[in-house]
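Translate structure to sequence.
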């Protein structure tokens, strides 16, 4: 058991899951960054049926950060959510309906789980793809069991750059497509198309 999310992130190792045992409110504004996770490794933060309330606490560099470190963070929840503003950094795959006030730098973003039928001519799709939102680099983590990425897309009109693989080669574009839902309300769909 740990008293803070920051302490749990510092202790987690490859393949482990941090589980909230109740609603948790961050009070110290510290970043949650894993120190024992390296490239190619992953860990999970499972909210279960609880709420993680960031509470708008400010750290030394603005909103507190939730990071995958050098590896990948998988965020899951049964029925609950994250509330409050926070920054994300690194490869984060979020299976959350309500990710709260996630930001990349100072840009508000939402998570979108997007399947792709694109295949690279040489080998498999990368475990993460990169793109920029108005100059802020974003790493979109891949679900290894499905051909699906967790894209972090801006809530505003910020520009999204072409998608690059781990070698820096541009091979796709993220496009916002205005669609009409069954209830005739406009919604924004995100698709990955080949370059």
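Result:
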């Amino acid at each position: 058991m740990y008293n803070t999310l920051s302490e749990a992130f510092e202790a987690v190792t490859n393949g482990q899951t941090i589980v909230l045992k109740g609603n948790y409110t961050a009070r110290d504004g510290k970043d949650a960054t894993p120190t024992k996770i390296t490239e190619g490794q992953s860990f999970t933060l499972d909210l279960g049926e609880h709420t993680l309330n960031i509470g708008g606490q400010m750290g030394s560099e603005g909103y507190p950060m939730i990071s995958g470190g050098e590896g990948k963070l998988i965020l899951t929840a049964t029925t609950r959510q994250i509330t409050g503003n926070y920054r994300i950094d690194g490869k984060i795959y979020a299976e959350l309906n309500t990710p709260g006030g996630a930001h990349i730098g100072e840009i508000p973003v939402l998570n979108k789980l997007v399947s792709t039928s694109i295949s690279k001519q040489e080998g498999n799709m990368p475990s993460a793809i990169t793109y920029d939102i108005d100059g802020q680099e974003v790493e979109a983590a891949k679900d290894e069991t499905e051909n699906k990425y967790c894209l972090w897309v801006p809530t505003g009109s910020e520009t999204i750059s072409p998608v690059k693989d781990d070698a820096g080669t541009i091979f796709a574009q993220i496009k916002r497509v205005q669609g009409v839902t069954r209830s005739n309300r406009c919604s924004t769909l995100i698709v990955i198309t080949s370059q």
